[in-house]
Structure formats: C-alpha cells, structure tokens
Amino acid sequence: MNPDWQPVSDEWYEIVRCSYQIVWHTRSVPSIDRLSPLLDRFRVRTRVFHTGPLCGVTTFAAQPGRGFLHVLRRGEMEVTYQGPGGRMEHRAIDRPSLLFYPRPLEHAFHNAPTADSDFACATLDFDGGETHPLVRTLPPVIVLPLADVDSLGPSLDLLFAEIDNVSCGRRVLADRLFEVVLIHLFRWLLDHTDELALPAGLLPGLADERIARTLLAVHESPGRPWTLATMAHEASMSRSAFAARFKAAVGQAPAEYVTGWRLTIAQDRLRAGASVARTATELGYANPPAFSRAFTRELGRSPRAWLAATE
C-alpha cells in the first residue's frame, strides 16, 4: 500500500458522487422534442390558395377549424379584423411580415392596386378544430416581421423558390413547404414566449424545461393514473413547487390539465369512431359512467349527445 495514501473522507466522497451525477445527467439527457407528439396526434394540413399580388380589398372568411398563414414578401397593406368586444381592429403592415391566424377569424387585407405587392397565402386545417392543443391558447392573430424571425429564412426561401418555379407538382410541394414554415414558426414561438408576452397556456408550459417534461409524459400516456406526486416526479420537483410553477406557466392546476387533455383526446377518438367504453378504458377512467360524468361536466353533454351534435 502506498504510504502516502490517505482515506477519502465521507464529505469528499459525497461531493465527487454528486458532481459525477450532475455531469452524467447533463450528458445523458437528450434535448426533448416538444412538438412532434402533439403534431403527430393532432395534425395540421396546409393548403396554398393564393400567390402573387393582391389588389383592393380581400376578405378571408372564418370557417370552423380553419386558420390562415399569410406571408407578405413585398409591399404594404392595412389589415382589419374584429377584436375583443366586436371592435374593429386596424393594423398597418409596412414591411415583409408573417401573419398567423390560428383560429377562425374573419379578416381583410386592404392593398393599393399595385403589382409590387407579393403574397403567399395558405389555409390551415387543424385536427380537432379549436380544441387543437396548440391553437386554443394562442392569441387570435400573430404578426411577425420576417427580419425578426431568422430561423424562418431557409424554409421561406424554399417555399418562394417553389412558388416562383412553374414545374410539375408545384402546388403539392408548396403545400408541404407551408407546413414546414408553420412548424418552424411553432419552434420560434416556443423560444420567444416571454418576448411575445403570450398568456399562460400550453406553449409557455412547453417553453419551461421542467414543466415540459411532465406535459410530454401526460401527452404520451394520458391513461396513466396521474397524481400531483407522479407529475412532480417527472419534473424532478417537490409537489408544492411543481404545482405553483405549473399553474403559473400553463394557467391550470395539474389535475385540471390532465382532465382537459384526456377529454381532448376523447373527442378526437369519438370522432374517429371509437366506442365510449374503449375510450374510457384507454384514458384511465374506472368505467364508462365515470368517463361520461367527467365528459358531461366539462363539455355540457354526454359523449353520445356531443357526438350526435357534431355529425
């Protein structure tokens, strides 16, 4: 034995052990994908319906489950839409911008009759309509100057290159590229929730690394017997700290969010033809009556009455 060797103290051993755990955790935990589980379950379909200049006044009607994504590449315009309380809102757009209407909202573009204006416009059809998780907590309209959204540059370049190129499959490819632009937009929104001052909701929750881990677990396994303790464990937080942080970010208590998410899934499955009994079992309810009571309490109708009203 080396005569210079000295036993390592318990305190030193504990410091080394904790340091190793921190380094191992940092290296082994991958970056989490906060969007794919949502967009896989609740798809968004984009369809280009206009490219080129717009002249005069163009009105875009509100239709159930439909949003709009407009890209102003060149030109200026005034946008009008009905705001809270029925008041008509006016907004001047004087630079290349992206205009995102996540929910049905009638709006109009007022353009000078000039060929210099250049647009690309797409409809967005959300699975679940206004119950789409990423849609229902967003403001009615988001306007972003393209210069402020650097990450959208490459996908917009591809989109406009395809729009300007009259080739076979142009329309189909442009539809797909608009979907790419939308996903990049969601990414950007996740990274800038504070700057946009978004109200509490799903996107601010997903922007919080710890809360996001719990949200993803709930999204992927809605039928698990979720409790405050199990949800806090996913976030590696105490129950009290987690409950307060979750409510501040998402705007709901954890149990309320789980119920809302389960019923969002339930509506999607019932529309797809799943039975009430099967839906209740898959979403963690003890029996169909317990599921029906929760559904009726939240949505005001029994599952079968709700389904009949939506057909």
TrEMBL record:
UniProt entry keywords in alphabetical sequence: DNA-binding, Transcription, Transcription regulation
Pfam families, per the entry: Cupin_6 (PF12852), HTH_18 (PF12833)
GO MF annotations in UniProt: DNA-binding transcription factor activity; sequence-specific DNA binding
TM region positions: none
Domain HTH araC/xylS-type, chain residue ranges per copy: 212-309
PROSITE patterns documented for this protein: HTH_ARAC_FAMILY_1, HTH_ARAC_FAMILY_2
InterPro entries attached to this UniProt entry: AraC_lig (IPR032783), AraC_XylS_family_regulators (IPR050204), Homeodomain-like_sf (IPR009057), HTH_AraC (IPR018060), HTH_AraC-typ_CS (IPR018062)
The protein's name: AraC-like DNA-binding protein
Annotated organism of origin: Myceligenerans xiligouense
